[in-house]
Design brief:
The structure is a homodimer.
Chain A: E1 3-8, H1 16-31, E2 35-40, H2 46-57, H3 63-87, E3 92-95, E4 102-105, E5 112-116, H4 119-126, E6 130-134, E7 137-139, E8 145-147, H5 152-163, E9 168-173, E10 194-196, H6 197-205, H7 213-222, E11 226-230, E12 238-241, E13 254-269, H8 275-285, E14 293-297, E15 303-310, H9 314-328, E16 333-346, H10 356-366, E17 374-377, E18 380-386, H11 390-400
Parallel strand pairs in A: 1-2, 1-9, 2-6, 3-6, 9-11, 10-12
Antiparallel strand pairs in A: 4-5, 7-8, 11-12, 13-15, 13-16, 14-15, 16-18, 17-18
Helix pairs in contact in A: 1-3, 2-3, 5-7, 6-7, 8-9, 10-11
């Protein structure tokens, strides 16, 4: 017998049929003798409907009241999932975020979880009941309802799992797990049996869409091991956990790509203090998210800065930089290029293995793929390539690091 | 400056336009310098939608979870009304029943209000904010959401008014107030400026649909004076209050009618103890609501019982009485009649005025209207007449008691 926390997202409870399906899945766990707590999101589409309602009466819906409104979505789904389980004869109770003791603070619509008082959840679990908890919501010190923002239900599930000391926390979603690469791009991509928090965080930061980083960070902070798996079948998914020694034997855990990147380079910048701040400040003021940053001094003694961003931001970036360029002096010029892709490899094995970058660049070079910018972190290497070559690049690197074969 | 509690029902907040209209009305009170708390129902139709959702996943929706589901309707409307007021620049906050300290007990889906802790409501009012409270819902000792059943939002409003010691409690609805008779039946019916709790309770019990009796009883218990008025105009409505001396100068406050009544009479009942219990017990077991009961001993020494019920129940009543009749012995026979109307007059003035019944019967007799059964209470007289004459009967009695003219 295990204490299992599951989380079902909006798609998984997006229709009455799917709600009945979730109830069947939960019942199967109970029949097997497990204690189960389930965190659910609002039914798919409901949150958008509620947002549309708010727009009908408010040009700029106030956040405190948005939380009151949005939290009804999860409140409806917990009652419906509970009813579906009771219909199957499984003793079940629903709990709102507030009732489940999920205490939050910070800004409405994007609050953070401070702590969970699991007294009531534990009481019901000990009574042999399944507990259905509303995700995405909690209550602050003043007793006000707060929602957690994007990925909030995952966060709720991790927090509930931590608070009840669950044996297993399963994030049930519409993907099967975490793959060595996007299977739509790399045909022989493999589902990973496990991955460390840090690797998943790095992969998420470079385009792999599995979970919001904040939920992974929260799990890491509280040491909650969780599994990402499909709500549509019973296949094992990917365990996300603390790194351990045997993980380091694999050099690269996965490959991730981002498309539609653009590069801006400013050349001929006088090599004086404050120039970078001037440039990046103008971009920040224009609320342009820049990604990779590469700076160096060219042979002519002037500095050059290159940075990448999403292609959609390129026009605004050029506009924002125009006045800055004049300030930098007559030598400064701006160059830009769209149609860039970014390829990243991630793995904690990089810490103990040398030559990873060389191996990657060699493989790309042998395939005739030119590398533009390069950035690295302790467990990640990212390069830009021509966007038309990004899928080839992913496949070449995937094979070069033997990701198509299970580790020995 | 006054402290005003208003209640708007589902129709009054039934569309985004109406929500904006409510916001304008509340703003006008604030501009006039009043403190305002507003109790709102779910948007019209929403409760039915939620019920339909529950039916999709449950053949017999459990009441605890129905409360979790249904309470989202009011939670949505408080947030939307609050947003609409903020949009008009009026500082406003929403409170769920739980946040407003509305403590309940008893059965889910029809809980009772035990008490209200108005601390938070008072705090916001003192800060100069309008407070929008979710009607129909509260929280029990265990922290579970409970709903109050039919008329629950009126009850919430009366309770909030009591707890904050409001100067005025206005129940805004789709009728203008309480009338001396149904204006669709009696053309010269007048809107009453005031009525006592007991009179409204008696009128409600005999067919006048203004408010659920439990809300009036609650108001009476806690001495909350309230006004029933229209949400569509600014006309004064009817004040419902403790009775006071000048009220007794009016003999009859109002006239009410009920249609589609049926009568069952059992004759030839042996005059022995337990016979009535036998008959009424059989009807109670069949869940038939009986209304008027008249019993007496006929000249032949046998007892006879007559009772009225809704016509829809007549068939079931006859079926339920069939086995009883056999038990009562060979003399017992059953007679029944449908197509009956019931006319009632109500007024606390009856206590101090004699001859009211005679005056009523004389007027009906002069109009050629035959009277069937008669029952009386301290402040009410009810008679049955042929249903085709019920409207005439109402007009005749209305005129006989000068209800078409304002009291001197």
């Amino acid at each position: 017998m295990a204490l299992i926390v599951q989380k079902y997202g909006g798609t998984s409870v997006g229709s009455f049929d799917r709600i009945r399906n979730v109830a069947q899945r939960v019942k199967a766990l109970v029949v097997d003798g497990n204690q189960v707590a389930v965190v659910v999101s609002a039914m798919g589409g409901v949150t958008d409907q509620l947002l549309a309602m708010a727009k009908q009466v408010s040009s700029n819906p106030p956040e405190r009241e948005m939380d009151v409104l949005l939290s009804t979505g999860e409140q409806q789904s917990i009652s419906l999932v509970t009813m579906a389980l009771l219909e199957l004869g499984v003793p079940t109770v629903s709990l709102t975020g507030s009732q489940a003791g999920l205490h939050t603070s910070g800004t409405h619509t994007r609050a953070r979880i401070d702590n969970i008082d699991a007294t009531i959840t534990n009481k019901y679990l000990e009574e042999g009941k399944v507990v259905i908890v509303a995700g995405f919501q909690g209550v602050n010190e003043e007793g006000l309802i707060q929602t957690l923002g994007r990925g909030g239900s995952d966060l709720s599930a991790i927090a509930v799992a931590a608070s009840v000391h669950a044996d297993v926390c399963q994030i049930l979603t519409d993907v099967d797990g975490v793959y060595t690469a996007d299977p739509r791009v790399v045909k022989d991509a493999r589902k990973l049996p496990e991955i460390s928090y840090d690797e998943l965080l790095e992969l998420a930061s470079v385009g792999t869409k599995v979970m919001q980083s904040r939920s992974v960070e929260f799990a890491k902070k509280y040491g909650v091991k969780f599994e990402v798996r499909s709500s549509l079948n019973n296949n094992p998914g990917t365990i996300v956990t603390e790194e351990h020694d045997s993980m380091e034997s694999v050099v690269i855990r996965g490959v991730s790509i981002e498309r539609s990147q653009a590069r801006v380079t400013i050349i001929g910048i006088p090599d004086e203090p404050g120039m970078s701040a001037r440039i990046l400040g103008a971009l920040a003021e224009a609320e342009i998210n820049i990604d990779m940053i590469v700076s160096n001094i060219a042979h002519d003694g002037f500095a050059r800065h290159s940075f990448t961003m999403h292609t959609n931001d390129l026009g605004r970036a050029q506009a924002a930089l125009k006045p800055v360029l004049a300030d930098l002096g007559p030598t400064a010029q701006i160059e830009s290029e769209a149609g860039i892709g970014k390829l990243s490899v991630v793995g904690i094995g990089m810490r103990s293995h040398s030559g990873v970058a060389a191996q990657m660049f060699t493989a790309l070079g042998a395939a005739g793929i030119n590398i533009g910018m390069i950035t690295t972190s302790e467990i990640k290497i990212s390069v830009t390539v021509d966007e038309v070559q990004i899928e080839d690049a992913a496949r070449v690197v995937h094979t070069a690091f033997n990701l198509d074969r299970p580790p020995a």
